[in-house]
Design brief:
Chain A is an alpha+beta fold. In chain A, about 60% of the residues lie in helices and about 10% in strands. Chain B has one domain (about 20-145): Alpha-D-Glucose-1,6-Bisphosphate, Chain A, domain 4 (2-Layer Sandwich), CATH 3.30.530.20. In chain B, about 25% of the residues lie in helices and about 50% in strands. Chain B has helices at about 25-35, 35-40, 130-149; strands spanning about 1-5, 10-20, 45, 55-60, 65-75, 80-90, 90-105, 105-120. Chain B is globular. The chains are: A alpha+beta, B alpha+beta.
């Protein structure tokens, strides 16, 4: 709900996630849920200002959302922002076509 | 004959893949419903052709990566139609196979139509099991990027 307006064009998503540090930050938020900049910095291998800069770019692409609580800012992943990039329909079409190839092979091997 | 009809995020998306096989519906039905046969062309499974039965499709293409699709049987019409839910990577969908007998010069054949309708999640971060799928997708990004350059 309400994500569609935040969705970025695929090329912005690609550009944003092409950077390994940004991708690692995004992956961590996907896997571990909401985190503060401090918690993310602890394992990012780069300084806090660098992490903040990358988070700002992820936010701009709609890939993360921030939430302020006291002095801390919490970041969370917005998986729905990936929808244009996933291109589910073409992935699944390819998947079923190759499955049908295997089905054909199986049917040939099966006895009546 | 294949078709894909993508639509805006938050709505449904449908994938249709159809193919004619030179085998009768009864034989195709066995491949769709017998676990060891299903495993040979789709994925490892604990399928049973019983409405309401929950099962999981599994695949391990790499030692560090597992695919699991959570499914529930919705409809079973022997030799004609089979439908089940297909939840993977945070995307809920329904897969329906329809078998239509055809006549071929060599005897009876079957047209198999697979229709998959997906629903984009409105709270994807809450959906369990999405992690591995997303990780893989992100891993595949390099490949995709290389392709579009």
């Amino acid at each position: 709900m309400g994500y569609s307006g935040m969705q970025a064009a695929p090329d912005i998503l690609f550009r944003t996630l092409a950077d390994p540090t940004r991708r690692a930050l995004f992956e961590r938020l996907c896997a571990e849920g909401e985190k503060t900049v401090g918690a993310l910095t602890a394992r990012a291998g780069v300084s806090q200002p660098v992490v903040s800069k990358h988070l700002a770019m992820l936010k701009e692409a709609g890939l993360v959302r921030d939430r302020h609580e006291g002095r801390h800012t919490h970041y969370s992943a917005q998986l729905s922002a990936l929808a244009p990039l996933l291109d589910w329909t073409s992935q699944m079409t390819g998947f079923w076509q190759s499955r049908f190839d295997d089905l054909e092979n199986l049917l040939r091997r099966m006895d009546q | 004959m294949n078709g894909a009809a993508p639509s805006a995020a938050g709505e449904t998306r449908t994938v249709v893949v159809e193919r004619d096989f030179a085998y009768p519906p009864e034989k195709i039905w066995r491949a769709l419903t017998q676990p060891h046969l299903l495993a040979a062309w789709l994925m490892q499974n604990d399928f049973q052709a019983a409405v309401g039965h929950r099962f999981t499709l599994r695949k391990e293409p790499r030692p560090d990566f597992h695919i699991a699709v959570d499914c529930k049987v919705l409809a079973v019409e022997p030799h004609k139609m089979l439908s089940y839910t297909w939840d993977a990577m945070g995307l809920a969908s329904v897969v329906t196979f329809t078998l239509t007998p055809t006549t071929t010069p060599t005897g009876g054949g079957t047209r198999v139509r697979m229709e998959q309708t997906g629903f984009t999640p409105d709270r994807p971060q809450n959906i369990a099991g999405a992690k591995a799928g997303w990780k893989r997708m992100l891993g595949d990004l390099e490949t995709v990027l290389a392709r579009i350059e």
